[in-house]
Amino acid sequence: MTNSDKNTVPKVKRPRSLAFKIFLYLAAFTLFILLVLWLFQTVLMDEIYQKIKLSDMKSCAEEVSESVSSGDMKDCVLSASGEYNCCISVYEIREGSGDIVASSHRQTTCMVHNLSSNGFLGEMYKGAKEDQFYIKRIGLELGDEDAQIMSGGTKEKSPSAVICATIVEKGRADYLVLVDSEILPLVATTRAIKYQLIFISAVLFVTALFLSVLISSKIAKPFKKMTKEAACLAEGRYDVNFETHSFSEAVELGEALNYAAGELSKLDVMQKELIANISHDLRTPLTMITGYSEVMRDIPGEMTPENIQIVIDETGRLSTLVSDLLELSRLTSGSQVMHAERFNITETVRETLSRYSHLKEAEGYQFVFNTETDVFVSADKVRILQVLYNLINNAVNYTGEDKTVTVSQSIENGAVRISVSDTGAGIPKEQLPMIWERYYKVGGFHNRGKVGTGLGLSIVKNILLMHNAHFGVTSTLGVGSTFWFELPITE
Ligand code: ADP
Questions:
Q1: What is d(CA 200, CA 206) in angstroms, rounded to the nearest whole number?
Q2: Mutate to test the pocket of ligand 1, among 435, 460, 473 (most ligand atoms within 8 A of CB)
């Protein structure tokens, strides 16, 4: 990349800081709470207050009406006017005229005790006849000063008296129950609440700011530390220890990073071992090839078929190593495509074993195949052959003194299981999960006597994973190992 290219690379916009985001959420939450409070405490306050007041008056009128029927009217009028803080008058209406039969006077601005005309009583009676709870609202005439005090300095609203009338029929008389209460305008109260809300808002916003800084610094602290430690990982220092004792999310991240660091360090060791092994593996055949070639060139009579065979064998060793490395890198890069075909796996195993017998019987190896019927599978034949070759090769390389390799075929739950067993030294239990990893060698060293690149089982694993096949290994020290895999049978 040239310098001018670098300059034209657009800058990636960094996301906002944690503190800013937390403040934003807290501020939004505070705003929402304040809005709800403001709505109920100021805008709807008057309406709610009036609704409650009217409902109280109706309840009061109802209680008194019931007491008229039951007879304890006077006591009830007294107690209800105290309970609901209102004036109550009960009129007995006979033949067009009404007389007070019970009354309780609590408010100076009461209308029911200052009825100026029979006309008003008549209106209330008529209203209550039409409507069970007849409500009449009357604006109160107050002096300028009073009105200003009650309305919080404005003259727009003045207190009003509300009268609730209801009729109880008893005998030949009608009883008109009048309940009077004063409804005060809440302008002053709502104004006070508004000032309080402004103050509360300011306090809440400052608190939100303080809390966001506090919370974010608490949350960000372990992450900042981990970022520093992760930078060490990038530099190849795998001995870092990510903190795992703040809060669960950070602990989980710390554990995941510790695990990743462990895996990276293992991989690093393995790669170093691989380089050592590969260089050793490459150098040995190359030395042999060079040595034998020079001998054959310089010493007459040394150009024997045996010497040439050694050069061929060593070249073969080299090409196996190179092709294993290529194969594994192709498999793990995911660029390999599977070519599934239906084939007789029993026959394939049989043919493979007969090839081995042909090659190895002279060295005293024995190959046993236990099978009952021939089965077909749908898989990538070339790759399954690779699996078989790798497993049988390992069994040949690691089997015991009896030089026996046994392949068994069994059928279970619609799948065929191919097991390759040897009678070798076995693999320690704790190392069993690792042998499938690239470059892994039991004991950690490379034994040239037992030819191998340390890549065979990793290739096997990747091929079987490609087929979604089950596979595994069982091993007993001193008895031998059995590697197996399963493929679904096709009819
Ligand atoms: P290699 O090419 O070295 O055999 P593999 O990936 O095939 O590499 O095997 C990995 C390691 O697993 C081997 O180095 C060996 O230590 C162990 N291993 C594999 N197969 C057997 C077996 N049949 N018996 C004992 N050890 C085995």
A1: 10
A2: 435
Confidence of residue 419 (pLDDT cuts 50, 70, 90): very high
Per-residue model confidence (pLDDT) at position 249: 82
Q: What is the pLDDT of residue 143?
A: 45
Amino acid at 401: E
Å from CA of 64 to ligand 1 middle: 100
* Ligand 1 center to 394 CA (angstroms): 6
Q: Which of 442, 447, 459 to mutate to test the pocket of ligand 1 (most atoms within 8 A of CB)?
A: 442
What pLDDT score was predicted for residue 11?
62
CA–CA distance from 393 to each of 82, 274, 328 (Å)?
104, 20, 17
Quote the longest CA-to-CA distance of the chain: 157
Phi, psi angles (nearest 5°) of residue 80: -65, -40
**Token duo for residue 425:** 């030294």
Distance (Å) from CA 398 to ligand 1 centroid: 8
Report angle CA 76, 52, 81 to the nearest 5 degrees. 20
Spatial CB neighbours of 449, under 8 Å, sequence gap ≥ 6: none
Give the atom of ligand 1 at the shortest distance from the alpha carbon of 454. Answer: 8
B/e letters for 257-292, b = 16+ CB within 10 Å, e = fewer, are bbeebeeebeeeebeebbeebbeebeeebeebbeeb
Ligand 1 interacting residues, C-beta cut-off 6 A? 394-395, 398, 422, 424, 427, 435, 440-442, 452-458, 481
Rounded Cα gap, residues 120 and 131, in angstroms: 16
Q: How far apart are CA 85 and CA 79, in angstroms?
A: 10
Rounded to two decimals, the pTM is 0.49
How many angstroms does the Cα of residue 387 sit away from the middle of ligand 1?
A: 13
Flag whether pLDDT at 328 surpasses 60. Answer: yes
Q: Which atom of ligand 1 is nearest to the CA of 459?
A: 6
